Amino acid sequence: MTSSLLSCNILLAGVGGQGTLVAGRILGEVALTLGLDAKVSEVHGMSQRGGSVVTYVRMSPSVGPPLIDEGEVDYLLAFEQLEGLRWAPSLVQGGTLVVNALMIRPLTVSIGAATYPEGIPDLLERAAAGRAKVIALDGSALAAANGSPKSLNVVMIGVFAARSGLPKEAFVSAIDRVFPEKLRAMNQSAFAAGFEKGRTA
Amino acid sequence: MRSIMLGNEAVARGAYEAGVRVVSSYPGTPSTEITESTARYSGIHTEWAPNEKVALEVAIGASVAGGRSMSAMKHVGLNVAADPLFTLAYTGVGAGLVVVVADDPGMHSSQNEQDSRRYAVAARVPMLEPADSAECRSFVLRAFELSERFDTPVLVRLTTRVAHSRTAVETGERLEAPLRAFVHDPAKYVMMPSNAKARRVVLESRIAELARYCEDEAESAGLHRWIRKGTRLGVVTSGIGFSYAEEALPDASILKLGMVWPVPVGLVRRFAATVDRLVVVEELDPVLETELRAAGIELEGKGLLPRIGEYSAATLRRALGDDDRKPAAFAPGSLPEAPVRPPVLCAGCPHKGVFLALARVKAVVCGDIGCYTLGALPPMKAMDTCVCMGASIGMAHGMDMAAGREFAARTIAVIGDSTFLHSGMTGLLNTVYNGGASTVLILDNSITGMTGHQQNPSTGKDIHGNAAPAVDLEALCRALGVRRVRVVDPNDTFATERALREEMAVPEPSVLIARSPCALLPDACRDDVLYRVEPSACTKCRACLKAICPAMSGGYDGPVVIDPEMCNGCGLCARFCKFDAIRKEDATS
Questions:
Q1: If one looks up domain B352-515 in CATH, what number appears?
Q2: Is the pTM value of this prediction over 0.80?
């Protein structure tokens, strides 16, 4: 981990319905397995309806507030390009930004009231100028190739697992605890694909 | 056992361990998961009530009959339940009764920002405020003890960040709280003036006892915490404010109040004497600040910290600490601005067409609380008012009465099925009784949608998904005296528009029920069908984008594209295409 091995702030950014809540739950389970304290803050209700959603995950020996202040994010896992751009300013110097290639156009763009910036992963890479590790991937394709596009959240966790240096087994067992039996094999395979991507990035 | 739980799940766990027998609630973000979670424990009878007032009355009945009971609601729900609450404070309880209220500072999913501590003060009911999931569990257990020891209802206040954060909880076993014998005691439970006058005196002496408890015992009972650090700065806080203070001001001494009303003025005075500077950290209203100032304690509060919205550690750092932030990865201005992504009506929402029809008939729309409030946003902009649950119908009638028949022909009330049953039907009764001519459009999606699919009396299922009697909305409206009750299929935008024009024109009350289940319900989800744009046939006229569907994009440089993952197969877009470019496909092939 960037700041210290035992303390880490992760921001999961996506669009309502992309599975950030479940990803947050998995990370919470991972922390608990490792004997760490963890807080996972979610957003429910109105903002979930196709709007921008974020889940904050903090793990350390003793976590303070569940929210992560701007500029204190160690890992930004962006499930969608535009959300990666939106939350990039919250990343600390030396942090890691994982951005999924998926583009979900907000209504403001669909109706022509705004434009969706082109080539966000490249923009992020250039603007980071070495002050952050930017990993761009087509996580949705990896998820689809491993069973279901709905496993994108687990692919993203796989990338994080590889970059964080936390014990891989903690993730594998957390995934088994969070998913029902019939979804386990598919999610383990999606996790492995994400892990491989993170390891080689 | 140690596990990681949502604050709301931990409240339910605490209630389970406290031996609660009955839970009755109405859903509302951020409180909904409390009741969904108690429903999963055996030994607790859990039910959704049609509104918060009924829910609390059910809990009161359970308590008087001798069973521990609980009701959970959002802050505005407590407004609805305020009537029984204020008199419940007079009667006291049979077995323990706890009311959990979840405030929403920052209005993540609410129409206003209310501080429920004001209800504790006004109703003279003690209030506890946990700061994390572990405290959600332990404070609810403590709340039941206090309720029985002092013969009072107890309020437990959460805020969104406590209710919707997952943190570690050590769970215990369920206590056996045997049913207490019902006691026939009209002097205590029949609140007519002669009895109430006596209970009023009891209420005051009880508050005095509770104030002594809060001063002398609450710290050793694990409710208050005094963290002794530096003497330069002392912070008095409660709930989530504690975690912000702990993180942002590591050198400050902190007095964390777990029982926030009555305010332990003596304890704060002793704490104040140990520090040079005293600051009260409380989100929303200056409740502690006002009481402490009245007691003559010198402090800083809302002059220094905001009165509006949520706090964070950064809020306190900016106001009080060293705001020496770590360097950010991205320099300010190095990235283009990301266009906003507001919430929208879902892809395939069958009720979307209704708003398109409303926009076309140029109606003055009195809206209500639910998913359909999103119809107020651009580009639909098909809503003129939204105040509170059920308000649409009363407001439409008021408009008609003030502005006359011609204006009345343009006004319409739009309300969901669950909201209509919550508090819309009394409004409709009023319209009929007082000779109104409003048109009421009930959007019946067969579920309580915005809060995440809770059953209600019109869905035919109870909280467990078991079969339950379903109210007949048409018969109900007729019974209230409405002669013109029609059902339309909102997927047929044009038929809906025709029906709207006809009903709005008639000079008597009418109800139009637009009936089609929420697109996200398992039975409604059209996994078998999806729509695709044939690029060669698309003229880029963008007429289909009137469907305002999050699954659709393009139409400027290239043809319109429908994301197959997001398409729920409603076909609304295809109705707008004059070139047959949008084609239905079998998704299973």
A1: 3.40.50.970
A2: yes
